[in-house]
Design goal:
630 residues; alpha/beta; Rossmann fold; Luciferase, domain 3; GMP Synthetase, Chain A, domain 3; 3 domains; seven-stranded mixed beta sheet; five-stranded parallel beta sheet; 29% helix; globular
Amino acid sequence: MAGKFETLYRESIDQPDQFWGREAQRIFWKEPPKRILNADHSPLNIWFEGGKTNLCYNAVDRWALSNRRGGAAIIWESPETGKSRILTFWQLYVEVNKFADVLRRHGVGKGDRVVIYMPNTPEAAVAMLGCVRVGAIHSVVFGGFAAENLAQRIDDAGAKLAVTCDASGRGGKPVAIKPLMDQAIAFTEKKTIEKVIVLDRGILDKSKVFTSPLDVSFEEEMAKTPFVAREPEWVESDHPSYILYTSGTTGKPKGVLRDTGGYAVALTTSMDYIYGVKEGDVYFSTSDIGWVVGHSYIIYGPLLAGLPTVMFEGTPVYPDPAVWWRVVEKYGVTCMFSAPTAFRVLKGYGDDLFKKFDMSGLQRMYLAGEPLDKPTQEWASKVMPNTIIIDHYWQTESGWSMLANCAGIELLPIKPGSPTRPAYGYDMFVVDEAGERVKPGEKGFLVARSPLPPGTLKTIWGDEGRFRDYFSTFPSHPDYYLTGDYAIEDEDGYFWVLGRADEVINIAGHRLGTGEVEAAISSHPKVAEVTAVGVPDEIKGQTVIAFVILKQGNVGSPELAKELVGVVSQKVGAIAKPSAIYFVNKFPKTRSGKIMRRVIKQAAEGGRDYGNISTIEDMSAIGEIEKALK
């Protein structure tokens, strides 16, 4: 007899209209959907067609206008500034209504784009919620990205307004943010930004904060705006809620576009079925709002479920490596979401760290963002014996978990190193290069069959061609969505994700295209050619290294290598800094001139069995790479 999970899973695949029609009742609809799934133009599917709703209303108003208004909504902890703050649902409702009116006053309305470049602060959450309240589309950019990256995103989105702050902190040191926003706006080609709303946190000197005629003060704008409880903008289910940029295999980032109704239903359902949380629970995701986890599980997911969400500004080791566990004890956190990298870092500080705090209420710890290795999962289980450690797999494009152990339905046996099975709504399998399913235990490409469930990417902003690329790998299977990862499915239907199959690397849970790193290094006047590859790293999972051919007359040196690392840091961000730069005279290329990245990557990882290399034009190029690595 099929278990509870298997029964629900089969219904979600075989009868998606019935399954999602029922789950759609979890949220408030101003106008109910007329059709659950419109797949007439698949893969451009529409979920809950004809329905009208609002993401902010479901995340804030529903609770603020109920007997839960006095309950905590946002719990902000900032070791970087030594401050903390709790916003109840009612207080959040007041702040968001006011900020929505600030946006309206500056001409921002339905369909306008707003770029948000801020750390994890309550004001950033208010800005995001205020945007979706008025039907605007927010684009939150990770604060670790450099000005040129930010400029690219502002131009691509055509953002009308920006929200930022003076600075943040990282490991106790101030990190300037507003100067980068100023640089980014100067770098933009389209000059679409009309106003910059600046939160002055008192970290930078005021002379560096309000520097442009476009600038207005966040505090002053809010102070002069009276609280008026207005209705939100009721938008169509498929109206875009946000653009979130993710790295592709080319240098240009992809703007993943999320809908409204499908996303609200998917997240609300996931809080129950995947995370198993209920009223009285406290949710703590250690991510950053600039990443998809921050969108889905710091801001929208917990609030849609009416739960307090812990918003943490800082690192896992500042002021000391016990900082997270103090937060867990202080607020009675019951469910936590983090990344394997953080646990690999904490492992270096020993097991005793976890014994000093009362974490008896922490029922489950979810890890995602990169493959969770078996030793790390087993260590986490050992040092947190009262907490179930659960791996799950998803990506920016999916918006929520694709492979999961759905604890809220039925906790399946855990196999360390495996994110378990496809979540409800996802029909997933492993295929070969022709798109045919491989046998259990065989490595292949991880794919999901369209229609993808609610909450997944609607399209790529301004570039439908790139959206269709996800479905173009297997011509005989145009309904196969390529995740970009290798995987194995075992005899029990459990999946094992092996890492990227393309030129995207995953550094500490952050996706970066090697093309972005290469473009930065190529901009140096002494560089002729560059190839960047991802290699395994004990702490971060992966790190990037680069092989560089210099223009004639130039010689490689440690000083030049340092200079090139600095260029990457400046143009892409510190997260993308190569851990090593190797100078070579040639690359292994095919006769058509294509660089054989696979060979370079294999050499960098220590392998010498290169498989079929008959198409290489100059075999001595492999020796060049091997020699440089010694």
